[in-house]
Amino acid sequence: MSRLTVLAGPTAVGKGTVSARIREAHPEVWFSVSATTRPPRPGEIDGVHYHFVTDAEFDRMIADGELLEHAVVHGRNRYGTLRGPVQEQIDAGGAPLLEIDLQGARQVREAMPEALFVFLAPPSWDELVRRLVGRGTESEEEQERRLATARVELEAEKEFDVTIINRDVSEAARELVDLMGLEDRD
Questions:
Q1: Which candidate, 77, 82, 103, 131, has a CA 20 to 30 Å from the CA of 33?
Q2: Burial call 161-182: b when 16+ CB within 10 Å, e when fewer
Q3: What is the pTM of this model?
Q4: pLDDT at 180
């Protein structure tokens, strides 16, 4: 039987970049596509990067029990993981990986305590700030909001089964693949 792996960590730590590296090298890993109420960023495609939904649709999904976890992130937008596809992957013996925030990871721990919970940490606070500012995708006000959230999120590292420090994307991806029990193809 397969086991769900949950990857979480503070904003700008590189969760998406590490996940993208794993996607390239390990097509057998199944990635959940989260639902969100935030608008798409340039280049994001509905159903590929996220399921972009209205607040009303998100409320319906919660009421109908369709979400494994859901949270308000950075005090603004809601994100959630669809329960059905995750369970289908586990039941089929797949290698499911959730890339989610701290609030969501806590809810998944309640619902699926048997999952493997991995915290992706930055090598230092200064590096985390550099990565966030370097993305250039958020306003200065949004950067400050995200950094305030990141300080809180870093304190939660002890809640996770294992920590990977993201000094190098390829190495962090390799460590996660090893934890998932998959063969490294690099």
A1: 131
A2: eeebebeeeeebbbbbbeebeb
A3: 0.84
A4: 95
